[in-house]
Amino acid sequence: MISVCDLTLRAGSRTLLRDASLEIRSGEFVAVLGPNGVGKTTLLRSLAGVRAPDAGKILLNGRAVGTLSAAQRARQIAHIAADELFLDQLVVRDVVAMGRYPHHRWWQWQEERRDDTAIAHALHAVHMESFAGRPFDTLSSGERQRIWIAMALAQEAPLLLLDEPTSHLDVRVAHEILQLLRAQVHAGKTVVCVLHDLNEAAEFADRLLLLGCAEVLAFAPPDTVLDPRVLERAYGIPMEVMQSPSGVLRVFPAAASLERL
Amino acid sequence: MTFRLAVLLAVAILAMLGGLLVGGTSLPAPQLFAALTHPFGTGDAATIVWQLRLPRVLIGALVGTSLSIAGALLQGMLRNPIVDPFLTGVSAGSAVAIVIAIVAGIALPAIPAIGFASGIATALVVAALARRGSGIDATRLILAGVSLSSLFSAIIALVLTRLQSTDAAPAIIGWLAGTLAGRGWSDLAFALPYALAGVALATITVPALNALRLGDVRAASVGVDVARAQWLILCSASLLTASAVTLSGTVGFVGLIVPHIARRFVGSDMRYALAASAFIGAALTVCADALCRSIAPPTEIPIGVLLAFIGVPAFLYLYLRSHRRAAA
């Protein structure tokens, strides 16, 4: 679905990523991991086509992402950026309805029946039908995240890019959000998601993309990437990995590294 | 929502009919409407209605509509409720050219064109200064608009202090204070095409403006070409503001408050908010102009001054009250 060839990304004088190449397949759940400031958000923005690469190419189904018009891009890629404040008092349904923008002609002001259907489906998929008439600013962070996902689903784009959808959420709500995304992958979408919590990534993602030292340190299934030596290289502290009784890998900073602090 | 818009349209039409009734010569309603239905009639009533009051009411409506739509566009684009259409430097740019033209003794009929051209030129300079990448940076736009406006105010002040002949002073003060006195069909015919072009551009940007309510980043992610939308909005607002300033000078306040009133009636959805702003702006300006003519005849109070006197306290009251309520 996405081919990244020799991608270089810079932030000011710093090189975030040098000559990275990777391939994201259709229908998989990819978690982008790495320490703060390593360029996860920048990579996501480049994949979304809103930030041009400093070198190299990003191809979406064989076509350079940068050559798509804004509306063409939005029909292929739904990008959910980290939260942003806004002033207007909008109702939940109006927010979700914005996802229909790329499907409208420039002169089309009114919703059609297929817009209605798409909005209803999107609200249903995130279990928020009963919130349709609520003012957006009365929602909790977890509920807002669900609505942003619903807006992305209303876009009907096959690729979902999310920037830290579980930050600031409690354990249960974070889990529910990731389950929603997993369900979307099951329904045929491709999900690329920046995550901070290695354990969330281990549990939900098909492959983990670990960034560090201006390169892709690993891009493989969790049991390969969640190796103490690989993780120590990325995060700079010793890590312990163990298997939970349910069979999922669990990652912790090693006890010795905590004592050092 | 359609009902609310219909009510606002009716209010605007009533205000315009009321505006026709107000004037130095008392003209009873039946006589006035008889004259109104006979455009080529003769007699005093026909002259008063067709040569004096009707163009003036229509100009008032056009000024109010243009400034209100421009204000709604810019407030929506910058997601900043305290932005007004003069922010882009259009009015100061027009005013400085007009003041210089009057002092230089350029013939009166040429003055609207000079004001318009200078207003648009200023908007272009401000937009060029506010450019970042392919789009427009909100903070830079505000900084550029405010600093150019103060530069032009300083130039105007300098010209006024150096003014030798006193004959030019009333004309200049009229422009600066904002007035509809002495305008006629030819001024309307000059400004109308630009205002209509501005309205046409504004309607194109409505879906993008709605998406921009979520912020630039989220608007871009649902497929809005943010840079293109910003340029269209800025072009539209500049055309509308320049047309209004050409007709009336600097009539402040309408472009700031009317979008707020409109949002109270119909919400922030631009499909309704733009139309509501247009109707409310027309009604408010026409009523205010009627007051200006009738408070102390035969002299007139400048409409910009009147609007500030009535509008500023009313606005502060409404705004502070709603904030207290929100805080409670």
Q: How would you characterize this protein structure?
A:
The complex is a heterodimer of chains A (261) and B (328). Chain A is of the alpha/beta class and 261 residues long. In chain A, 34% of the residues lie in helices and 27% in strands. Chain A has one domain (2-89, 157-260): P-loop containing nucleotide triphosphate hydrolases (Rossmann fold, 3-Layer(aba) Sandwich), CATH 3.40.50. Chain A contains ten helices and twelve strands. In chain A, strands 6-7-8-3-9-10 form a six-stranded mixed sheet, sandwiched between helices. In chain A, β11 (239-243) and β12 (249-253) form a beta hairpin. In chain A, α4 (113-125) runs antiparallel to α5 (141-154). Chain A is globular and about 60 Å long. Chain A starts with a strand and ends with a helix. Chain B is an all-alpha fold. Chain B has 14 helices and two strands. In chain B, strands 1-2 form a two-stranded antiparallel sheet. The radius of gyration of chain B is 20 Å and the shape is globular. Chains A and B meet through α2, β6 and α5 of A and α9 and α10 of B.
What are the main properties of this structure?
heterodimer, A: 261 residues, alpha/beta, Rossmann fold, 4-stranded antiparallel sheet, 12 strands, B: 328 residues, mainly alpha, ABC transporter involved in vitamin B12 uptake, BtuC, two-stranded antiparallel sheet, 14 helices, 2 strands, globular
Helix content of chain A: 25-40%
The count of β-strands of chain A is 12
Radius of gyration of chain A: 19 Å
- Determine the strand fraction of chain A and express it as a percent band: 25-35%
The CATH architecture of chain B can be given as Orthogonal Bundle
**Main β-sheet, spatial strand arrangement of chain B:** 1-2
| Corresponding CATH superfamily of chain A | P-loop containing nucleotide triphosphate hydrolases
Q: In CATH, what is the class of chain B?
A: Mainly Alpha
Task: Indicate the mean pLDDT of chain B.
Answer: 86
Tell me, what's the shape of chain B? globular
Estimate percent helicity of chain B.
over 70%
By CATH, the topology of chain B is ABC transporter involved in vitamin B12 uptake, BtuC
Number of helices of chain B: 14
Coarse shape of chain A? globular
Order of helices and strands of chain A: EEEHEEHEHHHEHEHEEHHEEH
Examine the secondary-structure arrangement and name the CATH architecture of chain A. Answer: 3-Layer(aba) Sandwich
Which structural class best describes the helix and strand composition of chain B? Answer: mainly alpha
Please provide the ordered H/E string of secondary-structure elements of chain B: HHHHHEEHHHHHHHHH
